[in-house]
Structure formats: structure tokens, C-alpha cells
Amino acid sequence: MTQDKTSAPDGVVRYVDGAKVLDYLPHAFNVKPSSRYYFWLMAPALIVLAAISIYPFFWLIWMSLHNVGSSAGETFAGLKNFEKLLTDDKFWNGWILLFQYSGFCMFFEIGIGVLLAVILNGNRFENVLVTIFLMPMMMAPAIAGLVWYYLFNSTFGWYHWLLQSLGILGETSIIGSTDTAMAGLIIVDIWQWTPLITLITLAGMKRVPRDQLEANMVDGASAFRNFVSITLPNIFPFLLIGIMLRFMDNFRFIDVILALTGGGPADSTNVLPVYLFDVSFRYFKLGRGAAIALTLLIVTIILGKLLVRVFEGPASKRTDMGS
Amino acid sequence: MASRDVVTYKTPLSRLRDVAIVIFLAFYLVWTIMPIFLMFVSSFKDLLAAFQLPPVGAFSKIGLFFDFTPTTKHYYNLFYNLGFSTYLLNSIAAAGGSALVSVVLGSMAAYSLSRVDFRGKADLFFWIISTRMAPVVAVLVPLYAIFRGFDLVGTRTGLILAYTTFNLPFAIWILKGFFDNVPFAIEEASMVDGSTRFQAFRAILPLVAPGIGAFLVLCVLFAWNDFLFASIIGSGGAKTLPPATRELVQPQNIQWGSIMAAGVVTTVPMMFLGLLIRRYLVTGLTMGAVRE
Amino acid sequence: MASVTITNVWKYYGKTVAVKDLNITCEDGEFVSVLGPSGCGKSSTLRMLAGLEHISAGDIYFGNTRVNDLEPKDRDIAMVFENYALYPHKTVYENMANPLRLRGESDDLIKKRIAFASEMLEIEHLLQRKPMELSGGQKQRTAIGRAIVREPKLFLFDEPIAHLDAKLRARMRGELKLMQRRLGTTMIYVTHDQLEAMSMADRIAVMHNGVLQQFGTPQDIYNHPVNEWVAGFVGEPPMNFIDCDLVDEGGRLHAVHSSFKVALTDAQTKILHGSLREKSVRMGIRPDQISIKAGTESGVDGRIKLTEPLGGDTLVNVDLKGADELLVKTNPDFNGGIDQACTLTFDTSRWHFFSKETGVAYF
To answer: Please, which of B105, B218, C24, C349 could form a disulfide with A45 given CB 3.0 to 4.6 Å?
Structure first.
């Protein structure tokens, strides 16, 4: 019988189910290797990032509390800029339009995008088609805006001609009328970004464990039931990420709007970031602009936190629970 | 062994469905390609032909679109009269430079974040990614003011730095995921063999090289297509293709031919890049949440 | 309950042939195992039976019905997948209920059937858990339960116990066999483990590279393998193979090898005289059909290369004169050491001769 030479306190050897069990901890735990090396390695990147994000952030705060503009010089203004926002119609309108714009785009992009993905999955020409379909995403939004401006133009635009010939539109261009301008913008966004939803959905569909689909088939499900009860729950996390990202990207990219409508006609497409652009770079009311920018940033951060929570969620976890 | 996809059985209903699918796909294909195609064709039309439209409702006259004599004078105009060769170079320099800086700094930071653990790591991470999510318009003003103070407005360096604003956090976020997939055991083995920690880091770089390559390309894509930064911070000396194209839209005389040509010049390289990195597009555009 | 008839079935994946001209008939209530190494076509066969793959050529009948064009849901089968394929978002109860719900059965019936199945499989206490909370063995029983509640005509099991640890596998072999007996449902069971096939099946279909090698009872396959490959595949430890020449001495054939010359029996001589074309054959003999003694006595001389004591048996690797080596299974009292001389005796009534050219067995 070998002698147990351990630093065990007395009487801590037990037997459970016929096997020997030890309950105590060693004296000294493993010491973690020094992390200083890693901190040095990430320092340059973090410094650059801080310079580019934290510094401007404080500037924004400073600017929002001052009257910064071309004429008044820089005098302290307290919360006046924010107060003015409360009664600023264009400000509130900007938020409403922004959420409308993002919301509608999202709605259509998901409907068409998922439909397309379902059709393409397993299709003979899937690869070729997907490659072609992703071309609109490669175009610079500013350029896309210009091309669609050309297409929507009431004098020489071919798309306008088509819409007019089909009786959908009258003589005014789609972006020339307050009723339809937003629709025009949404169309362009759908054209450019639906393929992204399709790609995401396809990626998710390929991750659906084939076993479960086949087991359901053997159990007695038709192709449609299979899609609803097995595929959909599995791709839902991916879709969610795509939705949120697209929603937030519409807060960031105003290139298309600037090219097509500039916020008009009559503020019907004056979403908040466009208004911000006008205030800061056309009217040079930098103090007010900074205040608007801060509100935009806060909302973005809130949405971002939600997004990150979804990131850490089921999309990154394995879904095959068989083995 | 198994068939590539779950097998299906043909029924009369499914045949009908197949026809409907073909029609839908055909429509969608045309819808997708049309604006790009139009841009291409229009870039070869002279001004008069570009404005030709059939009368409303005359569908039979659609062929009018193709009724023109192609000319390359717009491209010529772009490069010889309008200075687009400079703008092209600016785009390449700014996009390439920013991609390089972002990937180099980013991979170092991503690697560190992947290997080290500390309290507040999640928060740091969130801050990094939030810089990517911030609306450009919001940070543009302070950035402009800062850059002006350092005389960086209108310089390529300034633009590169500006693009790094969104490319760097993006690189850190994605590349960390790649490093996470490389087991630390490989570096430990390398260190047992006698390398320093940095050499071990270099040793695992080939394993993440394809990912790094792909994200280099993605950084180029985002920087190249940017409009706001280029027009505000790059204006003057470092104008890139998108704002330059926009400027061709003058109130009195919109030079559509040149605009279309500029659009082609801006878009074609990116379409090639898209083909190259197709596999990584989803990962890149969803910030790594969805891996293909 | 139904019989299964597989007639001239082929399976192609593009240009690759996975199953070639397969013919198997399985009686109603029989337990048939399809045995073979990876890539032999057994899984493809099972999936064709299930309807998860199209049949490239040939026909499959369940009873009198031709099922080639039937969807899986119309074939009245139940399948247990290698990785269980449980639905992670449903409880064990709902996983088992799924096939019944899809057919619109009443809640009462569902409850009754699940109670029966879960009692038989001893998982009644797990009904409200989700797959993520189960161990491998519990997941496997849930998958089996899902198959049982259907009360189908045919069970299709695809290597269901492959991913369990060794002790559990051994236990499940017995339980599955009992279960099939009790339920009386026809079962087709795919595996690469010959021990499973031998212990559980009524008949075994041995496949290799898409071709059915032999279809018979476990005893048939073990004692009368039709070719060298089957002989080497079935049986653990595996059969020994030695090449030897045949020499006619006084009307009786002898097997001649550099270490021995052994006479064949009359029956064996008669068979070989009838069909033999070659002068040398491959001899096969199972490790448990050789006896070994340490030291030098009368018999075949050899030298001990390695001994492996297994507790209930001891395996001995013996070097013969010439380059051949034999594996012998003997009782644990054997006390020979490495490099010691030893003597072997063959049980010649149980050895097998195979053609060196084709591998087909003479006997």
C-alpha cells in the first residue's frame, strides 16, 4: 500500500460509489503569466482609438454647451442648445422620419431577403446568382444615389418613364413629391442592401443541422412544416443581427439621401442625420449641431448595447444537440 | 455519405412552384443588374443620346435605349480635363493606407485582447465596437476641428487617419475572433521550442493570414466607398472618387456622361474585390457575428 | 410489420457509386444488421430505405408496396440517427410526441404511447428535460423512444450506440436486442462494429465498397465466410492468414509452409480436388483455433514475440520460421515469455482455405 504524501488535512479522504474522492485544494494556485506584454502590444491601437473617439466626444460636449457659430464667437451657453431642440420641429420630425425610414427598409429587406434565400438555398445556380446579387452592395452609396437620381429624373430617367408608363406615377418624379420621396429612398436602400439579408439568411440556413430536418421528415413533416419548425428558429438569431445592423447602418449612411433629395422636398426626407449635416455644415450652427449629435450618439449607443447582447446570444452557440 | 442537400420529391404542385421561382428570380436578376448596367451603358452615350426617352407608355420603343453611337469621350474627359487620375490615386492611397494601418495596429490589439483577460474587458470591447457604430455625421464636426488644428485637412494622411476611425475598431473586433480560434497551445509549443512571445505571435500569423487578407480587402472597400469623410476632411488636396463624382453635379450643367463614367471607375474595382472576398463578406458586414 | 425486399438497388452520387446491385430480403419481424467499414455503402442503403436519398436504380419493397417514390413521411418507418437528431428546443416528451403530433393523434394516445416507451427505456423521470441537459445515453434513449411511439412497420437504426462509452455500449447491445424481440418490429440496423452485429442480429448483411459480400446468420458468417475479406473483418481478434503450398502425397493433400506440413481431412481434399486451380492457397485460421505450449514439443515450432494478458484470455504473437506471424488466443495460465520457443497445434477441421487470386473461400 503506497503512502499518500499530501498536504491533506486529516480525515478528508472519502469514498463515493466505491471510488476514492479528495475534497481539498492545493496550497498555492497556479500563477498567471504576466499580462503586461499584452497591454503594451495593444497600446498603439488603443491610443489611436482614444484620440479619435474620446477626444472628439469631449469636444462635442464642450461645443454643445457653447454658442459656436460663425458670428457669435464662442460664448458659454449652458443648456440653451438643448432647450432649443425641444421646440425644434425639424429635430423631432427628424427622429420620426429616421425611424420610419429604417423601419420600412428593414421590413421589406427581410421579407424579400429571406424569400430569396429560401429560393436560392440548394439551387443549382446558387453561387453564381448570389455573386451577381451582391454587386449592389459593392457600389459606393454616394454613387448609387447619383445613378438612381438619374433613373428617377422626370425628364430623362428610365425608371421614371417606366413608372409613368405603368400609370403608377404622374409627371413629378418620385423624389420630387413630398408623398413619394421617402418611398424613393426606401427603394434605393432595398436595392442595395436586400442581398445582405439574403447572404446572412443563407449562412444561417447552412448551419441548420441536417439531422434535425431529416428526423422531422421521417417523423412525418412536409417541406413547409420543416421550414417553419426547424429552419426558422435556427436562423432567427442571424436574422436578428442582420436586422439590427441594417437598422443602425441607416443611422450612419446618409450618402444616398444627400445625393437624391438632400432632405427635401419640404423636409419630407429630412431624417435626423441629414438635418444634423445641414445644421453643422450648411448653417454652421456648430453648437446646436453638437447637441443634436450627442442625442444621436446616445440613441446609437443604446441600440448598440442591445445589438451586442444579441451577438453574445444563440448565433454564436452550436445548435446541434445530438451528440 | 449523403446528397448535398436534403432530397425532395416532385409533385405536380412543386412543378408549378418551380416555374414561379424561375420567374421571380428572373425579375430579381433584372432588378439587381439594371441600375449598374444602365450606368455602364450611359457612360458611353453622348449627352443628347443620354437624354433620349421614348414617349410615355410606348413600351415597344424600349430599344431606344440602345440606339446610340458609343463614345469614350467621357472617360477621356474625366482623366484629361477633370483630373480624375489624381482622385483615383487619392482613393487608392487613402483606402490602402488606412487598411494597412488598421490591420497592423488592429491585429496586434486583437491578438492581445484574445490572449489576455482582465476585469472590464467586455466594456473595453464594447467601447471599441461603439466607435464603429457612431454616425459619421455626429463625429465629423469635432474631427474636422481637430484635424484643422493639426493641418491635416486636405491631406492624404488626414484622410487615412479619418478612415482609421471606423476601420481600426472593425479590424480589432473581427480579428480577435480569428485569434480566438487559434489555440494558445500552438504558441506554448513554440515557446517551449525556444521562441520569444513575439516570435510565437509571428508563428501563428500564417494561421490567421487568410482572414487578415480578407479584412484588408474589406477595409479598403469601406474606405473607398466613403463619401462624408472624404468630402469634408479630404476636401482640397485629398479628394477621392465619390466626392469628386458628386461635384460633377453642378446646378447649371450636370455632366451626366462624365458622372456615369466616374461611377463606373469607382464601382468596377470594388466589384472585383467583392468577387475576391465573397466568402468573407457576410462576416465582415455583420461584424463577425455571422460566419459563413 | 412488414418484410423488406431490396432488389438490384444502385446508388450514385454524381459519378461516385456508393451501392452496387444490392439484393437483400428481410422477413417480417427480423433483426437484420448491415455491417461494414466506413464508406461501404451501408448508410446510403439505410437512407434509401428511409427515403432520405433517391434510389438511383432498382426497387425497394415494403411488403408488397414499392416505396421508391414515397416520401419518408409516407413510408411508415421510424429512424434513429447516429447523432440522435433531437430537437433542442423541445422537451424529451415533446421530442417523442413529435411524430404523433404531426399525424394529428389525440393527446390521450400520445400520452399512452409515451408512457409505454419511456417505461421500457427507463426515461420516465426525464420527460420534462431538454436535450441539452441529458447525457449521451439518455439522449440516445430519447431518440429510440421517438422511434418506438410511432409503432411503425420498420425500424431503421443508424449506428445508434457508436458514440457511447464502451460499458454503456455493451449494456445497450443486450437491451436493444430484447426490445426488438418484445416489440416484434422488423429492424434494419447499420453498424461498423462486428461485435454489435454478431450479438444482436438474426441475419447480417456484410458490405464492402458498395457490394454485398455475404448475407447470413451470425454463425454462418463466422464459421463459413465466403471470402477472405469477410473472414478477416468478422471476429475479434481477427483471423490469421498464411500463404502455403499444396502438395499431393499419396492421394491426400498437404498444406506446406516453411514451418510446417499438415495433412488435410478427406472432406477438404475432396473439395479442393474438385475446384482447385492453383498450387498455393491462403490459409486462414482463427486465434482461438490454435493451441500453444511453451517449450519444444511435437507440433509447429515458433518463437514468442509478444504476450498480451487480457485477464480472461492471453493473446500471444508467435513468429514462425519464414516471415509469417500468428496470433494465438489461449487461456491465462500460459506462462511463456518473450523470445521463448513454443509449439503450436492447429485445429485443422476449423481452418479455412481461400484462393490467393480471388480471395473466394474453398472452405
So the answer is: B105
